[in-house]
Amino acid sequence: MSTTPLSTAPMTTAGIDAVGRRLHDLVAALMPPMRSITGSGVRATLDLVRAALPAQIPFTVHEVPSGTPVLDWTVPREWNVAGARLVGPDGRVVVDVADNPLHLLGYSTPVRARMPLSELRQHLYSMPDRPDWVPYRTSYYNDAWGFCLTDRQLAALPDGEYQVEIDTSLTDGSLTYAEIVLPGTTDEEFLVTTHTCHPAMANDNSSGIAVAAELASALAARERRFTYRLLFIPGTIGSITWLARNPAAVGRIRHGLVLTGLGDRGAPTYKRSRRGEAVVDRAAARALAETGRPHRVVGFSPYGYDERQFCSPGFDLPVGRFGRSQHGEYPEYHTSADNLDFVTPESLADSFAILNRTMEICEADRVWRNTSPYGEPQLGRRGLYRSIGATMNRASIEMGLLWVLNLADGTRTLLDIAERAELPFDAVANAADALAGVGLLTEDGPAVDSPDTAPIAAPATVAPPGTIAAAPEPAVVIR
Amino acid sequence: MSTTPLSTAPMTTAGIDAVGRRLHDLVAALMPPMRSITGSGVRATLDLVRAALPAQIPFTVHEVPSGTPVLDWTVPREWNVAGARLVGPDGRVVVDVADNPLHLLGYSTPVRARMPLSELRQHLYSMPDRPDWVPYRTSYYNDAWGFCLTDRQLAALPDGEYQVEIDTSLTDGSLTYAEIVLPGTTDEEFLVTTHTCHPAMANDNSSGIAVAAELASALAARERRFTYRLLFIPGTIGSITWLARNPAAVGRIRHGLVLTGLGDRGAPTYKRSRRGEAVVDRAAARALAETGRPHRVVGFSPYGYDERQFCSPGFDLPVGRFGRSQHGEYPEYHTSADNLDFVTPESLADSFAILNRTMEICEADRVWRNTSPYGEPQLGRRGLYRSIGATMNRASIEMGLLWVLNLADGTRTLLDIAERAELPFDAVANAADALAGVGLLTEDGPAVDSPDTAPIAAPATVAPPGTIAAAPEPAVVIR
Amino acid sequence: MSTTPLSTAPMTTAGIDAVGRRLHDLVAALMPPMRSITGSGVRATLDLVRAALPAQIPFTVHEVPSGTPVLDWTVPREWNVAGARLVGPDGRVVVDVADNPLHLLGYSTPVRARMPLSELRQHLYSMPDRPDWVPYRTSYYNDAWGFCLTDRQLAALPDGEYQVEIDTSLTDGSLTYAEIVLPGTTDEEFLVTTHTCHPAMANDNSSGIAVAAELASALAARERRFTYRLLFIPGTIGSITWLARNPAAVGRIRHGLVLTGLGDRGAPTYKRSRRGEAVVDRAAARALAETGRPHRVVGFSPYGYDERQFCSPGFDLPVGRFGRSQHGEYPEYHTSADNLDFVTPESLADSFAILNRTMEICEADRVWRNTSPYGEPQLGRRGLYRSIGATMNRASIEMGLLWVLNLADGTRTLLDIAERAELPFDAVANAADALAGVGLLTEDGPAVDSPDTAPIAAPATVAPPGTIAAAPEPAVVIR
Q1: Inter-residue contact B363 to B30 (CB < 8 Å)
Q2: To the nearest whole angstrom, how far is the Cα of B374 from the nearest Cα of chain A?
Q3: Residues 6+ apart with CB under 8 A from C58
Q4: Residues B316, B321, B327, B333: is their CA dihedral positive or negative?
């Protein structure tokens, strides 16, 4: 019986600094592409991720045709932007998407028109209370067009005829997402997802894309019990598409994390899965507590990012969300002020370290069974225990041994034991490794969640309904 | 699939005032009859109730013969009072039941005797600490006689021979109670009971009788999912008699409320059923919390009114008690000071409104199942959801929709969802109605309690033992 | 149906004083023998216990041969001490075990040698922070020898050659323990154990031995529902040996208490069993609360005395530990300062009284079933209930009757009912006795624990593995 190493050595300060700088650089590189839920901006983004990864990591880009039914939804038309600008009565360019992707309402239909300011106004979005910021707006499922600009710009617009030049296309194409699968010693999966549809903003969600890429590199270099699957997907429609197309993988997910907003100066924050006490929920809470710094663990709600889909009642997956300040909690959210100054190397590296530790705990957590449960085994003759007297040097090691022997009855995980014993997780995990090494513990299996309510059975199969056979996967393996 | 309207429009201030005045008038009308657990005073009381009800409400008066075995008890002899007075040595009338029913010990045996004050004293009841109030005393199951009077009267009694004139009868007759059954779309029942045995007191329990009558009128005018059964019964022996005679109806009771003491100036108070977390318990607690005013929710105890019988372990029905100040909490309790000044139109109307709201919540509470549980359904194309941007106008509506979709998995009631989501009940109920309207929810059934312990199985049948076949029901349908 | 008397009358102050003096005298008598986990010092100790017991109490001494396999352990060689002393360069005796058994490291091998102080030092144990106390040290399972002395003595030792004279023997012999079994009306058992291996210390554990003997005397004079089994055993190896040899008795244990450290001035302290909410855990907590004086109830941990073995996961017995200050909480622990001044008659008597009350509650606790569960039974005609009016004299008696009738549904113990009703245990127990007396309650059985996790099933049998057939019991019945 081999045991999984708890972790490589803790990161050094220099190592953390290097990670932070590397992440901030990658966030900067990810700012320019004209991202949306589909289109060439997504592909350009995935190319940047691919370029940031070690060559041996398999990076698969999937293209799912427009019109494909996915659960209750349909993959939308592909949106591409050749250019978009608003020209004033005086011939001056008011806003140009070439300057900032945020200037164009996401999924704007193509328009070539002249109109007076009065008619134009209903297509212009600004933030009166933040007169120097450009808001981020989209209209994916209702045909619309519009420009986003600062309120100061809006206020200064002269009356007159404006020229609207939106050179976009909405065509049958495909939805693009990427997937990294790093096999473990088991086919049980740890899912990590991050959304790729928000353009030109650093925290939401260049930070998520960058940290997911860094995690892939770190995980690839490590022994893995779980198979790690990292998804770079457009929000909502991306997770829905992936869920619809991967019923078998869905059934293998044991833990999952949605990554978003990982670089701002706020306290690290974990949002629990719908189950509330899944292993990943408890592991993340422990990892945060171990930092000894301010942090938050918030309850599940059906509002947020892709955890909404993974935690819908039919799937009810043990997937939480990790980030720092949450959507709506900071004024820079969904504006041009979510820029490179808004995210810091320190916060990015801290987020990475906490995620890393969460994964380590999930890797180490499992159910052990004491092979000598009647009375205490004689630890002294096995070289695990002091043989004389009352010194307290090895006290906490011994308490770890005694608690694990007492509670490893095949019903409790190491997290359970650490919580009951009020010991650090590693004290319990190290004790379990030592006891397993002398044959006093045998592994009953990994820690598995039992949801507080069973997921809803599909009518005829455990897989979600339909769409899979109808949509053979046009996967393109990039490397 | 039709959905039950949550409520008629909330009552207007004028409407509430009218209800309060009507209730106070009915309380006043109910004061004079010489009520006890049996006898013509009960029948006179039921006549007053009948007269206060709209003509179309079926009002059934039951007469159960003396000597009928009912559970562990026996229906007692019928007690009637032709007159009762105590005449002093000087020929002056000390007390006369014609002035106040409280002057006569309830169930006094007939007596014609002369005796000195020293012998008489053991038959006289007063309140030394409340020298101007007449106490209320009874002796149903031990033969006894006596007079109740103010302590000031008692202290002033001269020595000498007194004439006791108690013209009562204790004869084989019957126990009288009334029943209103308002059928709903299902035969599952909502039980409302109030005791009819206390004479000449406004709060205990003319108020209960009056509010029950007003509820009958309101319920008769409304769509009903539940079948409502309102009982006007003598305390203890009345509920025991009804339980013994109605095993089939007992099995259909889903919610129940015992009404008592609804008119005093104290805070509205709900006493939980033995189950503690029955739907009616949670609905009443919500209705009280929604008032935003001081209120109490107290735990079950086996002391009190007829909830003692409904919540005995063999029945263990989800029946709570609603009132304001509780027995023993106010000095006027069971005295002549529980008079028309002690109850107010405002308190009576407020009690009525809270009961009404409790019933509305029970009507609306049910178990829904999301028909599209894999991922979120696309609300936008169903006209339920905003299609653009980040305005917060419809935020709470949307949170209701999202929470209901997420938690409506066939295991949770709307009350469960409202509690978990920390949303007002109506936000959740309205969302459920809207989602059901577009086919995204299907009803799994009404909310049903699972008791924390199973009721005790009767030896051979689920019905309580015996007495039913032996006592064919001499029901008299009044209209 | 007979009911167990709740208790003999509460002890009088004079009675308590007498118990305290008797216990302190017995503690004093128990100090001299050269106790260890085996050997003639244990036998001498058991002779003292036997002498303190009334003649009719059966007192069985067991001898288990060295080399007998017991669970994961082996019964060690028997250790006996003919003498042991350390002689200085000047011919003066530094320490002599004849002065204090603590001077010799427990299980010291025989040694006759001369050596310089420098070599001797690694065999000398003292307490630098308590320069006048002799520490208590042992080395049962690693061959070693040594002397314990005050740090002041150690500091004053002159250089030179020392003569080590340790006349001990480590030979095939046996492990000795004693057992008292007091049959009850059922064969369900209440286990009481105390360790007999610590020499020359008053609190740890002459106090435990003395109080166990006093309990045996008290229990022998009483009606007993449970069969009481009292064990006087060496720590760890003694409980392991008993558990290995008594699988049938193990299966009959319903409650158990490990006694240690019962005489110091600290607050009485109960340590819960691994199950945490076993009947004995709740009974002990109640008994402590009833004292109205400071006390502690602490959670289970796998560190401590023989509860470690009884609460190992394979056995998971409902066995807690009772004492006052805990090991390691007081500086006198495991030193010569744990002497006769450290324990008081008052503390010893108080410990005895609390243990007595804990046993009374366990005896009285049981599951009753209301034989008339439909509605309230008519208490008045059974002479249990007031028949007139509103006096409150018998209020708490009546509340006991009503609560027991309401909750005695075959699922709740009297402890459950007392906790739910917030009534004193005796109010509930007395009500149950009265109701049983008139046939309104029937006994469903004694209160039985359901462990929070099932004990680990042995491979082929519910008994712990092996060793029993291999080791026929060489029991010697003393009387």
Answers
A1: no
A2: 5
A3: C180, C181, C477, C479
A4: negative
CB-CB neighbours of A387 under 10 Å? 14
DSSP C460: S
pLDDT at res. B410? 92
pLDDT for res A403: 97
Q: State how far the Cα of B2 lies from the Cα of A115, in Å rounded to an integer.
A: 49
Q: What are the two backbone dihedrals, phi and then psi, of residue A93, each rounded to the nearest 5 degrees?
A: -75, 120
Q: What percent of chain B is predicted at pLDDT more than 90?
A: 83
Interface touch B375/A303, C-beta < 8 Å: no
Let me know: does A220 contact A182? Beta carbons within 8 Å.
yes
CB A412 within 8 A of CB A432: no
With beta carbons less than 8 A apart as the criterion, state whether C208 and C262 touch: yes
| pLDDT tens digits, C181-198 | 999 999 999 999 999 999
Q: What is the pLDDT of residues A289-343, one digit of tens each?
A: 999 999 999 999 999 999 999 999 999 999 999 999 998 899 999 999 999 999 9
Q: Which residue from C259, C210, C213, C261 is spatially nearest to C28, judged by alpha carbons?
A: C210
Residue B223 CA to residue B184 CA, distance in Å, equals 7
Q: For chain A, what is the mean pLDDT?
A: 90
The model's pLDDT over B444-457, given as tens digits with 9 standing for 90+, comes to 866 666 544 444 43
- Stretch A425-431: mean pLDDT, rounded? 92
d(CA A81, CA A103): 12
Cβ contacts (< 8 Å) between C431 and chain B: which residues? Answer: none
Bridge partners of B92, per DSSP, are: none
Instruction: For residue C466, give the chain A residue with the closest CA.
Output: A374
- With an 8 Å Cβ cutoff, are A374 and C464 in contact? yes
Q: Quick one: closest CA in C to B327, which residue?
A: C390
**Confidence label for C92 from pLDDT (cuts 50, 70 and 90):** very high
Those of residues 262-281 in A touching chain B at CB distance below 8 A are: 274
Question: What does each C-alpha distance from C129 to A414, C132, C151 come to in angstroms?
Answer: 39, 9, 8
**Model-level pTM?**
0.88
Using an 8 Å Cβ cutoff, are A68 and A101 in contact?
no
Does the beta-carbon distance from A387 to C142 stay under 8 Å?
Answer: yes
Identify all chain C residues contacting B309, using CB atoms and an 8 Å cutoff.
375-376
A232 DSSP β-pair partners = A178, A194
How far is the C-alpha of B227 from the C-alpha of B182, rounded, in Å? 6
What is the separation, in whole angstroms, between the first and last Cα of chain A? 35
Asked if B100 reaches chain C (Cβ–Cβ under 8 Å), the answer is no
* Confidence (pLDDT) at C6: 40
CB-CB contact of C176 with C63 (8 Å): yes
Of the candidates C232, C229, C216, which has an alpha carbon nearest to the alpha carbon of residue C178? C232
Q: Give yes or no for residue B5 having a pLDDT over 80.
A: no
| C104 contacts C97 by C-beta, under 8 angstroms | yes
Q: Which residues contact B199 (CB under 8 A, 6 or more apart)?
A: B33, B34, B35, B36, B41, B101, B102, B106, B136
Summarize pLDDT for C47-84 with one digit per residue, the tens.
Answer: 999 999 999 999 999 999 999 999 999 999 999 999 99
CA–CA gap between residue A193 and residue A236 (Å, rounded)? 11
CA angle A160, A163, A164 (to 5 degrees): 130
> Which ipTM did the prediction report?
0.89
Which chain B residue's Cα is nearest to A463? B374
Residue given tokens 């699968």 in the structure block:
A181
For the segment C86-90, the average pLDDT, to the nearest whole number, is 97
In Å, how far are C184, C187, C223, C238 from C363, measured between CA atoms? 10, 13, 10, 27
Distance (Å) from the alpha carbon of B284 to chain C's nearest alpha carbon: 22
Name C477's Cβ contacts closer than 8 Å, sequence gap at least 6: C58, C60, C61
